[in-house]
Amino acid sequence: MDQAITAESERVRIHLSARALGPGAHAEGKASDAADSVAHNDWREELAKATCEVFEIMVGTSLTLPTEPWPPFIPDFAAMVGIAGSLCGLVSLRTTADCARRITAKMLGDDEVGAAEAAQDAFGEVCNMIAGSFKGRISGLADGCALSVPTVIYGRDFTLLSLARGEHYEVTFSFEDKLLTVSLDLHG
Amino acid sequence: MKPVSVLIVDDSSVMRKIVGRSLRQAGLDVVQVLEASNGSEALTLARENSLDLILSDINMPVMDGMEFVRQLRGLESAQQTPVVMITTEAGEAHVVQALSLGASGYIRKPFTPEQIKERVIPLLRG
């Protein structure tokens, strides 16, 4: 999945499309006044901690950061959960269909054939738990924000376009031998 | 511990399966697992079945977990049934609201089987 951030005078557009992502670099976090209690750099760190927690507890796998710039990969499985309230934004999780099936199989203790039908449900729930864990880590957000029901998009011919005027943070992890990216788009 | 009949309420079938598995891992002798994908379905099952334990999500379509608990406590047959909320909504206000509506306990997602055991088994003994 390709991500391009384009500044247009006072607006920042974030394009997420089903093209190759990589190699390597992630967007830098910027200042946010949405939650004064959190230092700027903590958004990305807390998002990463929340993601690792969910995978360790619910999937039984410790995520790692890629040690080298990763080759292009084409995420064709994406889950999104909206955050609304004292902080508004979107948490999204993107990977390949193969990886989503593998995550599901590990969650259910099932084989990957059996997990295929449940992958959309499972991937949405993983994203939901990441969003919940993330907001629970930020002082004032647990009660100050509500989460949407997860949305899952899959296939190769889609583009996600956020018109939020805000910041973008993301982390790409290695899951076994596969890659997945978690991101947070904040509304200004 | 006596065999128990359980109702699991969650709009995610994957989570329902994981919760059911966690109950067994916690050592419960589960003889019947009923499943509902929202509060409205759960109320129907609660009216038609004798239940020992209910575990419910909060954020669900049609009828959420808070409204489900509120209406459940209006059923004479379910007034004493332990209800544990299992949800990503972990804020203190959510916990207070759930307990004030009649929930017996609260577990935050993600959860471990040990957390299920710690929160659920005392309710069944009580």
Describe what you observe in this structure:
The complex is a heterodimer of chains A (188) and B (126). Chain A has 5 helices and 9 strands; from the N terminus they run E-E-H-E-E-H-H-H-H-E-E-E-E-E. Chain A is of the alpha+beta class and 188 residues long. Chain A has one domain: Chemotaxis protein chec. In chain A, strands 3, 4, 5, 6, 8 and 9 form a 6-stranded antiparallel β-sheet that branches. Chain A has a 3-stranded antiparallel β-sheet with strand order 1-2-7, with no helix packed on it. In chain A, helix 1 packs across helix 4 (119-137) and helix 2 crosses helix 4. The two termini of chain A are 24 Å apart. The N and C termini of chain B lie close together (11 Å). The interface between A and B is medium-sized, with 25 and 24 residues.
Question: N- to C-terminal separation of chain A?
Answer: 24 Å
User: Strand-and-helix sequence of chain A, N→C?
Assistant: EEHEEHHHHEEEEE
Measured on Cα atoms, how large is the radius of gyration of chain B? Answer: 13 Å
- The tally of structural domains of chain A comes to 1
Largest interface, C-beta within 8 A: A-B, 25 and 24 residues
Q: Catalogue the unreliable spans of chain A.
A: 1-34
Number of strands of chain B: 5
- Provide the number of structural domains of chain B: 1
CATH level-1 class of chain A: Alpha Beta
Could you give a short account of the major beta sheet of chain A? 6 strands, antiparallel
SS field, number of helical segments of chain A:
5
Sheet with the most strands of chain B?
5 strands, parallel
Give the ordered list of helices and strands of chain B: EHEHEHEHEH
